[in-house]
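Notes from hallway chat w/ T.B., transcribed later so I don't forget. T.B. wanted the structure written out for a chain they're using in a teaching module, and asked if we could keep both sequence and structure tokens in one place. Agreed to drop them here.
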Amino acid sequence: MFFIKLFILFLIFMGSLQAGKIIAKKYSNRVVELKDMKNGLNMFLTKIKFTYESVPESFSEIGNNINGSVGKIFRTASNNMKEKQAGEAWEETVEKIESSFTDEDKVIIKNLGRMLGKTDLEGQVSEIKLVQDFLNTQIENAEIEKQKNEKLFKTLGGVVGLAIVIILV
């Protein structure tokens, strides 16, 4: 009986520790996804400057080269562009796909949709560069948040688990 109780307490502690790690991982995922989005926009910028591929074709190829939710955003937007205008499909997809982006990140990323496929080459290039500049700021902020909160939530998970175990003992 004692070993069963000890085992259950151990499971509670490990579960709490794992919950803290999962919450902390959101912060590092956000940094990775923002960098992936910036990388995807770099690829898109290169494609529209040097190739004559359509926006859906470019997005599809970019989506296949990037893993995770950012790649899924590009692939889904590409598919949605068959039925809707490019900008509308992009904005809808960014909002719909599950990611670690904050609401502020999503607003910045959706801004690309304003000019997508509506202006000439120079207009689109300047819009992409503007979004990339905003993403650089978001990446810096995300890294600061990650440093501050990642260790906090890992520790907090362990402390809460330990507190629960002490109360149950």
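Follow-up for T.B.: The chain has one domain: 29-168. Might be a good example for the class.
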